[in-house]
Amino acid sequence: MQYAQISLPYTIKIIGDAGEGIISTADMLQRAIFLYGLYSSNYREFPSTIRGGYTASVIRISNTTILSPLTSADCLFIRSTKHLLSEIENCKKNAIILVDSFQCEKLNVKDILLSNDRQDIRVLTFPLPEVNNPLSGFFSSFALGIIGKVLNIPDEYLRQSILIQFSTKGNTVVNGNLDLFTRGFCYDLSSKQQFSLPQVVFNSCEYQICDGNEAIGLGTVLCGCKFVSLYPITPATTIGTYLSLKLPEKGGVLYQAEDEIAAAGSAIGSSFSGAKSMTITSGPGLSLIQEFIGYASMVELPLVIVDVQRPGPSTGSPSKFGQEDLLAAAFGSHGESPRIILSPTDTMDCFTTIITAFNFSEQYQCPVIVLSDSVLGLTKNTIPVFPLNIDNLMSRYIYKGITVANDTQEKSTQSKSIQSIGLESQSNENFQRYKLTDNGLNPVPVPGISPVSYCVTGIEHDESGYPSDCAQMRVLQQQKRFRKLDSIETDNAAIYEYYCEKPFSDIAIISWGITVSIVNEAIGFLNADKVSVTSFFPRMLFPVCKKAINHLLTICNNLIVVESNFSGQYAKLIRMYTDAKPVSITSSSGIPFTPEHLYQDIMNIVRGFNDGTR
Amino acid sequence: MMVHDKCFSRNLYEGHLRPSWCKGCSFFNIRKLINDTLFELQFDPLKVIIISGIGCSSRMPLFSGTFGMHTLHGRSIPVAVGAHLVNQQNKIIVTAGDGDLFSIGTGHFVHAARNNFNITVLCFDNKMFAMTKNQSSPTSSLGHVGTLSPSGTTVQPLNVLEFAISCKATFVARTSAFTPVHMNEMLSRALTHTGFSFVQIIAPCKTFDAMAFEKMKSISLFDINGSSSHRKNDYDSALILASLTCKQDKDPSVPVNVGVFYEV
Fold it and tell me: Scanning every residue of chain B, which has its alpha carbon at the shortest distance from the alpha carbon of A301?
């Protein structure tokens, strides 16, 4: 018996139909690997129905933070499939297929491997257990046993994982599953080669398994947000599920509104009342709340909007992956209403980006849209545990009266951003909420706290905030609203990641959202091929980082923008706001790039640059 | 009501802007009564938020000395709910028209009433979209002639009283913009009610329906809470009376019912 150490990262793909326990198997496997002490990511594809339809989970195991959630499989576990050939095509060289003997016959696995010249793939079969009900155990526990055996995961971690999975279902269910697990784990697969798992890398109490939605949820609570509203929509709902448990503990309100418009409206009302407020939705909801985005921009109230994107247009593909809402987020709403767009690049970044979103929203008194997506939101990753407290939180400058000199508000924004308003009177007639200051910012009265009241209106207004017909004032107020964001790029660090390998590298790659993680893995392949890469990954997509991108042009001519939508939306924004004319690599299949395919796409362009065809 | 030792003087409730309503508009009466009532009840003007949508009546917060939110057409109620949920010490009042609340805003009304959020919704009912110069609204009478219905509408109006009661609002009342004493009483009870309170204030448009305006000033009103035996804490009775009221509205020879229809 040979023992070969698994080469990391190692990818296991589990496929079947919805309802067959695919996701449960993957969840338990990830938990066991975590308990053992290795990093893992757990990406899932699922249909938009409750039963039936293609479901797949992809577990990647690594000894370091995992970048791309999806790659070709090293091990394919088939519960059922209608597309065996394409699954086989996506297997790595020397992959293993695990399938029950009945399916193996039915799908003709061995013949298909033969006729497609894939004899490098080994097939290991096992008998299908006859039972799959809660009392005798779910198939997923059996599958866990088989996979655990192949990977040589110590069985104590697998058992503990099962215990945790079924902890609320009572002893009978737990024992039934442990029995079925044992049957799988003890079955002799007659494999000529055994794996051994590499050394443990971390102490599991310093790390956690978490997905982007939960990371956004926790960041929201730690920011001191007191109001979150939403209407259920895939794939955003689980942020609300998480918040329904955590937000009330901190005295916050989670409100399920009757529709997205009510969700956005209630968040604005809450913001007016002084609370940090957020609404959560996906693409279809973003369409609905455009009017309120414009309103928030016009009345200059902080508002955070999270859009967990999915492919569109219209209902689109509710459970698939896309980054297709950028232009809608940037310009959606009639008239011209400035706003900020941020997008996290990995699971941990979901936590840091939501904090930045609240800080910007409060500081610049405008709507901030956070573009996440179904992969970021629902892929469970292994990340460090979050801090219990956050420094440098910002809040709006609440107007407490002109005699207040030393207020106790969070310091970071105040002295820099708010100018003196020099009022004499406190009647609301003279209070200038929208004074034409240099940086466009002013203190905000809050009901119940401030000594002066005011009225917000969506109508164009003068400095007092009351409606005005004056053409000049109209232009001045528009300029003021846009002016607020003029210096946002230069005033803030960490709104983009910029890595210049060397001046005049072969190419520069720009990307955003989860695609950044996939690009980073592809860059590894490019570097191995001696292609030098400068990378620019903005976390703030809008306003566009003009200075940084124009600077990039001075040190590299070959800009490529990689993003997961059809029309190259960020590339369009770059062309609109900078001198750059980048090449686009896009994908809108509903499934993320794999680093291997992306590397091929980039190499095609590199060759084009080199031989002058680009 | 005795008025002495008030901390908040009457002028604090007045805004600094002169209302832009037409001269003689019935909304001037309503505004005065809202301010009078808030003053009598001594709500701190800095802890009152008047929230509106878009329309003639929705201009109300702009003409008030309290905090105000002039929001989007049909969306005053969700904004009010959000404002209420994060600080229940503030008094939230929605002032909006029949079109704003019951055309585009109907969905929001249902759920705020059902949830019994502690806000007061005042409908300035002129039975049309007046700001856009007279189109029919859901409360317009059958046969209403407007710019988009030159031959008159062919659809029965929505009975907002019945609707509010069926949405489980816990205070439903009706009054007229031309009876200050009655309006004061209705507003007072609505503003001090715990839970979702709704008052339909009949306030015809002088400019676009002068006939209805004059008629409302002179028509007889019947106070259902007077000597009548209406049991306002009984859901079924309230619904039946609301339904009957709507039928009677169409008959010019019968007095118009006003008062508290439902209160629990």
Answer: B69
- Strands A559-563 and A583-586 come out as parallel
Digit-coded pLDDT (tens) for B166-196: 999 999 999 999 999 999 999 999 999 999 9
Q: How long is chain A?
A: 614
Report the C-alpha gap between B107 and B101 in whole angstroms: 9
CA of A268 vs chain B CAs: smallest distance (Å): 6
CA of B191 vs chain A CAs: smallest distance (Å): 18
* Closest chain B residue by Cα to residue A466: B62
Q: Which pairing describes strands A207-211 and A10-17: parallel, antiparallel, or unpaired?
A: unpaired
The answer to whether the pTM exceeds 0.90 is: yes
Q: What is the pLDDT of residues A228-282, one digit of tens each?
A: 999 999 999 999 999 999 999 999 999 999 999 999 999 999 999 999 999 999 9
Whether A225 has its CB under 8 Å from any CB of chain B: the answer is no
Say yes or no: A448 contacts chain B, CB-CB below 8 A.
yes
Q: Are A595 and A521 in contact (CB under 8 A)?
A: yes
Give the DSSP H/E element, type plus range, for residue A520: helix A515-528
CA distance B242 to B198: 13
One-letter amino acid for residue A388 of the chain: L
Strand A380-384 vs strand A39-45: parallel, antiparallel, or unpaired?
antiparallel
At B153, list the tokens.
């509408």
B85 to A266: CB separation less than 8 angstroms, yes or no? yes
Of A164, A184, A185, A186, the residue nearest A174 (C-alpha): A164
* Model pLDDT, residue A423: 35
Whether B81 and A226 lie within 8 Å, measured CB to CB: no
| Crossing angle between the packed helical segments A155-165 and A171-186, to the nearest 10 degrees | 150
Give B-chain residues touching A275 at CB under 8 angstroms.
Answer: 86-87
Comparing CA positions, the residue from A418, A160, A483, A454 lying closest to residue A299 is: A454
Contact (CB, 8 A) for A552 and A536 = yes
Of B49, B62, B75, the CB nearest to A467: B62
Selected residue of A266, A304, A432 to mutate for chain B interface (largest B Cβ count, 10 A): A266
Residues of chain A with pLDDT below 50 are: 404-425
**What token pair was written down for B38?**
């808030």
B199/B222 Cα distance (integer angstroms): 16
Query: What residue spans of A323-390 are helical by DSSP H?
Result: 326-331, 347-364, 374-378
* Cβ–Cβ below 8 Å for A428 and B46: no
